[in-house]
Design brief:
By secondary structure, this protein is of the alpha/beta class. 26% of the residues lie in helices and 17% in strands. The longest helix has 12 residues.
């Protein structure tokens, strides 16, 4: 299962990840938060630098002016 979640803790996606884990499905997550709830359930986590609700990633500051 491939999950894309900025926060990595979206309620519905966490529910689906838990169900997938229960049937031993493999889970891959693309997120800005590799310490998230879904990340703990995933076998593969890809962290992307991006703006979050808490602020802008330093590499994106040029675009945030």
């Amino acid at each position: 299962m491939l999950i894309l979640s900025g926060s990595g803790s979206t309620g519905t996606l966490t529910y689906f990840a838990e169900k997938a884990k229960a049937i031993e499905a493999k889970i891959a997550l693309v997120t800005t938060n590799k310490q998230s709830a879904i990340a703990t359930l995933s076998q593969c986590v890809v962290k992307v630098p991006a703006a979050t609700k808490k602020g802008c990633h330093p590499s994106l500051q040029l675009f945030n002016r």
